[in-house]
Amino acid sequence: MLLEVKNLQIAFHDHSLPETVVHDFNLTMEAGEIVGIVGESGSGKSMSAMAIAGLLSRHDMTKEGKCLFQGVDTLRCSRQELRKLQGNEMGIIFQEPMTSLNPLKKIGWQVEESLRLHTDLGKTERKERALQALAEAELPNPERVYSLYPHNLSGGMRQRVMIAAAMIARPKLLIADEPTTSLDVTIQAQIVKLLQKFSREKGMAVLFISHDLSLVRQLCGRVLVMQKGYVVEQGDMETVFEHPVHPYTQKLLAAIPKIPGQGGV
Amino acid sequence: MKKKYNYNLMTGGILTVTMLLLILISVFYVPYDPDKMDSTAKLAKASFHHIMGCDQFGRDIFSRVMKGCGNTFFVAAGTVWMGTVFGILIGSFTGYYGGILDEVLMRINDTIFAFPSILLALVFVSLLGGGKYQIILALGIAFIPSFARIVRSEFIRCRELDYVKSARLSGAGSLRIMFVHILPNTRNVLFSAILIGFNNAVLAESGMSFLGIGVQPPEASLGRMMSEAQTYLLTRPSMALFPGLMILWMVLGFALLGEGISERQAG
Amino acid sequence: MQENVLEVRHVNGFYKEQSVQNGIRRLFGREGQRVQVLHDISFFIGKGEVVGLVGESGCGKTTLSKAILGFLKDREGEICHQTKHPQMVFQDPYSALNPVKKIGWIMEEPLKNYTKLDRQARREKVLEMLQNVGLEADMADRYPRQLSGGQRQRVNIGTALMLEPGLLIADEPVSALDVTIQAQIMELFQELQQKLQLSVLFISHDLRVVYQMCDRVLIMKEGRIVEEGTVEEVYRHPKHEYTKLLLASAGIS
To answer: Does A146 share its domain with A129?
Structure first.
């Protein structure tokens, strides 16, 4: 088992009453699996993913439960242990391709960063790996992109760079937090295909967080539906989408505009 | 979790309110005539009769401090008022319209900004002569650029927002958009700028009076009193101490108030 | 023949690039470099018709809406309205409402500027409109920050309808909202459209939303309209390659 989350609970304490934003979250993932988490804003989907990635370490919040990634509890392990995982065993990409890249550094430098931190590869080897990663992320002309700055690239290309940077260390798990939300639909479809390809060819697991049900349907094998901090329904894609049990899932699916004769979502 | 108290806001508020009270009282009542010289009380020590002592002419320092606070406050408030009003006018037009007008006015602004405000005020005073109102005019002009700059950048930020477009579609004219729709949105930034500007004005006024070009004798101002006290700094330090403390009181009060208000807006 | 509310004929739109070179050129009184963003755009909107405008970011959708509202200075071609005050509903429900004004004040603004109604009459109209868009009357005395995204978008729609506009431009009015809220706002929009016989230019990148909302659709790419027709026609039998790609990407074809 690659990832095992047990009874994860997250609460904030910055108001007079503690406010629990994630209740009793359970999830197991195997290598090569693509799992989607869907929900509306404020449902706790991003919060859960950030906790799994070990990125929640604020003083005004408490985390309970267990989150074992290859046997390491990312909720409680030390910063050194976390650093070994993040960007190495575990890749993370965010929604905003405009702000997740440093505007002052060249693309190549940013893609290589995790190799610089986690391996003792030399300069030429790093460049070789970076070019390979850029090519795998299907960026046209990797040599040229390598020496460009983020502002030279379009939103879709930046998100590809982010994926290349996350993929270069060959992570076993990729956590993608709304990675396509700010992109155009044709670009979205390309990114989804890219993630599928990586998952299939390299046996990488993907945790895909999105509010877009039709996208999740295209990409994922299994899905968790979250509402107000609770996982209200989970199961494999077909079952959840064809025979939703929980009223909220039914409501979500009904809210998608239908096109008659084109099947469901 | 316990409620967080905004200590800055409370302390600043208390300091400022007591200072304003002192100034208000001084308008109606001072223990002694602040300009009356008493040859028997020259350089008197602090006592029950003169709680802060007397200066080299035997004038009661407490009374002079009260009047001096009023004068300093009046000059600072006048300066900030002038800077704010003209700053808003210039900043709103340049920020909203942009283009040539913006280029020209902002370059003039930069030129004024490039001089230290005291130096600029000195030049004006040498042209206009000394005195309370001349000081307000001189410092006021020196203060306009910083306010204009703040207002301008807020207007530039706001003019691209959808609610401004929406206002235009609702038929609001440019003046209405500028002063009814956008201006109220700059109030938070403007308010803290006014408090900071006020403190700078207090210090500038004191500095200029210290140099002898501010409020003219025999009228009292905190800076002038310190300037007169420097001859007696070793023999009678309290003469400089009390006006100095008053400046500190005034500046600290407003600074904490400003800090507290921005804290409250953030939290 | 059907009466058209809006006719756009052979419109070319230009945009001056904000660059250092152009800044220097302007300083010396020369024209900056123009970039053409709209190429020979022609279409019409009939009375009571909802026309969808679909395209990806940077294709000129927003520039076209600016041109129709008269905000684009540098353009060629003809744009004829049959209506006095075209109105717009914006995408971002958060930046479209002035944060320091109460809802009632915001909704009254068009009446203040364009009509001679007194305070009492304006207030009545506002309360009536609040009811029309499904909000409680006490919303009038609240500030925008006290409202949710869906409620804000209802206010935006209400404000745009205050003057009973002949033409409404809706620029991605539901794409910033959660899917369940999105469904509610779409329902409201359709209900009002039918009740008031609104003519709408509905700009969106979401093909499913456009299908549900619109009668006809224009597909735009790189400043040109590449395909146009009734929704059924275009979705069932797309002709242009780009339309096919869009439909496939959205998982529709």
So the answer is: yes
Contact residues, A window 14-53, toward B, CB-based 8 Å cutoff: 14-16
Which range has the worst mean pLDDT, B129-133, B156-160, C185-189? B129-133
The DSSP-derived string for C184-200 is: HHHHHHHHHHHHHT-EE
Q: Determine the longest span between alpha carbons in chain B, in angstroms.
A: 76
Nearest by Cα to B185 from B118, B70, B55, B92: B92
- Torsion angle, CA of C76/C82/C84/C87, rounded to 10 degrees? -70
Q: How many other C-beta atoms are found inside a 10 Å radius of the C-beta of residue A250?
A: 13
Q: Are strands A72-73 and C75-81 parallel, antiparallel or unpaired?
A: unpaired
State ipTM: 0.83
Which residues are paired to A236 by β-bridges?
A222
Is any Cβ of chain A less than 8 angstroms from the Cβ of B3?
yes
Question: Which candidate, A188, A195, A251, A217, places its Cα nearest to that of A43?
Answer: A251
Rounded CA gap, B227 and B246, in Å?
14
- Chain C contact for A217, CB < 8 A? yes
In a domain, A161, yes or no: yes
Stretch (H or E) spanning B184 = none
pLDDT of residue B1: 39
Q: Tell me which of A170, A198, A228 is where a domain ends.
A: A170
**What residues pair up with C202 in beta bridges, in sequence order?**
C52, C170
Confirm whether A105 is domain-assigned.
Answer: yes
Chain centroid to Cα A111, Å, comes to 17
Half-sphere exposure of B61 (CA within 13 A, CB side): 32
A260 Cβ under 8 Å from any chain C Cβ: no
Domain CATH number, residue A47: 3.40.50.300
